[in-house]
Specification:
- The structure is a single chain.
- With 158 residues, the protein is of the alpha+beta class.
- It folds into 2 domains: 63 residues, no CATH class; 75 residues, no CATH class.
- Helices cover 26% and strands 24% of the residues.
- It has a 4-stranded antiparallel sheet. A two-stranded antiparallel ribbon has the order 5-6.
Length: 158
């Protein structure tokens, strides 16, 4: 079986850090860091095929709960956490020409840091807004905004 170096490559929520242990019939094993900061060892075939996409945290997002941040009640995620998950998803997606494809990144280290900076969502009509539309999601560049504020803060699109 031909060895393929996966170091530094992203596979969904995982980034391959380095090969660990000896290779066997099932191929190489890789130490990976998940976007949630956990580490996991994964077979190269499972990474490349998409069978393993996270350390296990992804199933909590799909199930509607998370044991880490406490923003799930009765199986429902808080509006703040839903916003956090969506902005991370669109910034990681390099095919999204408005976010990840433009190089827009999330610079918050965790949901907790994001929430401490932005605070609770004022009303259901508010959504996340970047003050500098060409800047990243980071401290000092995000706010809750209503539709009127969002319309006034748009970039020119040819």
């Amino acid at each position: 079986m031909k060895f393929i170096d996966l170091a530094g490559q992203r596979f969904s929520r995982l980034i391959a850090l380095g090969e660990v242990g000896k290779r066997d019939k099932q191929g190489a094993r890789w130490l990976c860091r998940c976007d949630c900061e956990n580490t996991i060892i994964v077979r190269s075939g499972d990474l490349r095929s998409g069978n393993t996409k996270s350390c296990g945290c992804l199933r909590f997002d799909h199930a509607g709960s998370s044991p880490r941040h406490g923003h799930a009640r009765k199986g429902r995620l808080s509006p703040e956490y839903k916003t956090w998950a969506r902005l991370n998803s669109r910034c990681r997606d390099l095919r999204n020409k408005y976010y990840g494809g433009r190089g827009i990144r999330v610079e918050f280290e965790s949901f907790e840091e994001f929430l401490a900076h932005i605070g609770p969502k004022p009303t259901p009509r508010h959504s996340i807004d970047r003050i500098d539309v060409n800047g990243n999601y980071c401290i000092g560049n995000v706010r809750w905004a209503d539709a009127k504020m969002q319309r006034a803060n748009q970039r020119f699109q040819p």
